[in-house]
């Protein structure tokens, strides 16, 4: 089973990665830019596996680059306190 199959697993996975990046001293602007790049990759290369991912993919597809940055930043905020570590 992939972390993409379950929304909570996906949020925990992202939260773990965000926590690790913060512990390593990664700047918030770098995290934000990476989230934007990952969002673009996922929207182009990965089929959504659940309803939440489908909503995000649909929103991403109609958003301007500025709005896509906002979506990416909101996802960072959403998972900031998630994760298993």
A few lines on this structure:
Pfam families: DUF3243. The chain is an all-alpha fold and 85 residues long. 73% of the residues lie in helices and 0% in strands.
Describe what this molecule looks like in 3D:
This protein has 85 residues and is mainly alpha-helical. It has one domain: Cytochrome Bc1 Complex, Chain D, domain 2 (Orthogonal Bundle). Helices cover 73% and strands 0% of the residues. The chain is built from 4 helices and no strands. The mean pLDDT is 86.
Task: Describe the secondary structure blueprint for this structure.
Elements: H1 7-23, H2 28-45, H3 51-62, H4 65-79
Low-confidence stretches: none
Q: What shape does the CA trace take? A: globular
* Number of H- or I-type helical stretches: 4
Rg to the nearest angstrom?
Answer: 12 Å
Q: How much of the sequence is in beta strands?
A: under 5%
- In the CATH scheme, the class would be Mainly Alpha
Distance between the termini: 20 Å
Largest sheet: none
CATH architecture group name: Orthogonal Bundle
Total beta strand runs: 0
Tally the structural domains: 1
Structural class call reads: mainly alpha
Could you tell me the CATH topology label.
Cytochrome Bc1 Complex, Chain D, domain 2
The chain-level mean pLDDT equals: 86
Helical fraction: over 70%
N-to-C SSE string, H for helix and E for strand: HHHH
Protein name: DUF3243 domain-containing protein
Pfam families: DUF3243
Organism: Bacillus seohaeanensis
InterPro entries: DUF3243, Uncharacterised_YmfJ, YmfJ/YflH_sf
């Amino acid at each position: 089973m992939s972390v993409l199959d379950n929304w909570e697993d996906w949020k925990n996975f992202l939260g773990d990665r965000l926590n690790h990046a913060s512990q390593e001293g990664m700047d918030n602007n770098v995290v934000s830019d990476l989230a934007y790049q990952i969002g673009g990759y996922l929207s182009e290369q990965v089929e959504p596996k659940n309803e939440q991912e489908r909503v995000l993919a649909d929103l991403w597809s109609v958003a301007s680059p500025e709005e896509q940055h906002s979506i990416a930043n909101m996802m960072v905020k959403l998972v900031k306190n998630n994760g298993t570590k």
